[in-house]
C-alpha cells in the first residue's frame, strides 16, 4: 500500500479500535444513555458493536487519557444462562460446533434467533426467510415486524437479542474493569434503541452476582451515529501529533543537557534532527 500510494508510512488499525478513538470526538447528542452510572468516573472504557459481525475494543485509562486497543472478543464462546438459551446453543451447534457471541449478536445472529424461536414454537417459516434476500435485509424485516407488533415471535426474538446483548456487554465491562463506561456501537444498536431501553438489557447487564453493585455504577451509552470512524481519523492524527511533540521535547532536553545547545536553537532546527 505504501508503494502503490507512494506514502512513507501506512498504519492499519482494527475497525473497532477506530470506533474507540472516535468516541471522545462525539457530542452529547450522539449518545443515548441506557444507564447513568457514576458520571465522570476515571477508568477504562470499552466498546461493543453488533452489526454484520460483533466487534469489541477496549480503552485503557493511563491516568491522563484513554488509549484504544483492539480485541477479538466477539469470537469468545457463547455462554447460555437459561433453558431457552441452552436450546438455542444446541440448535446452532447443529451447523457449527463452535458457537461464539458473534453468531448471536449480529444481523445473521438475529435471523438465527428468530428461526430458532419459530421452530421452538412449532411455527412455519415466513416466505421472507425462504427467499434469497441477505441476512441484513431479513434482520431488518424481523425488526420491523417486532416494532409494528405484527409478529409475536419477532417480538420475542428482539427481546432475547437485547437480553443477550446486555449479558455480553456486562461480560466485556467486567473483563476490562470498564468503570469509565460501556459504549454500544455498530449498525444495530441505533436501530433498536427502543428495545435496549426495555428492562431486559440492563437486567442482563447487571446480573453478575456479587458484582451487581459495580455493574450498576457503570455508565452505558448507545452511539447513535453509525459512522464514528471519520471522527476517529482526527483523534488519531491529534494523538500522533501530540506524541511527536512530546518526543521532540524529551530529545531537546537531552541535547541541551549533554551538548549545552539552547532549546530555542533546537526548536528552530527541529526538522533537521532525527530521534535517537
Folded structure, characterized:
The protein is 49% helix and 12% strand. With 276 residues, it is an alpha/beta fold. The protein has 2 domains: 1-226, Hexokinase, domain 1; 232-272. A 6-stranded mixed sheet has the order 1-6-5-2-3-4, with helices on both faces. A hairpin with a 3-residue loop joins strand 2 and strand 3. The protein starts with a helix and ends in an 8-residue tail after the last helix. The model is unreliable at 270-276 (pLDDT under 50).
Walk me through the topology.
Elements: H1 2-5, H2 15-23, E1 31-35, E2 45-50, E3 54-61, E4 66-70, H3 83-93, H4 107-120, H5 127-130, H6 135-147, H7 152-176, E5 181-185, H8 193-196, H9 199-206, H10 212-216, E6 220-223, H11 229-259, H12 263-268
Parallel strand pairs: 2-5, 5-6
Antiparallel strand pairs: 1-6, 2-3, 3-4
In short:
With 276 residues, the protein is α/β, with parallel strands linked by helices.
Q: Which stretches are poorly predicted, pLDDT < 50 over at least 5 residues?
A: 270-276
Estimate the strand proportion: 5-15%
User: What structural class do the secondary elements suggest?
Assistant: alpha/beta
Order of helices and strands: HHEEEEHHHHHEHHHEHH
Count helical runs. 12
Descriptive tags:
276 residues; alpha/beta; Hexokinase, domain 1; six-stranded mixed β-sheet; 49% helix; globular; disordered C terminus
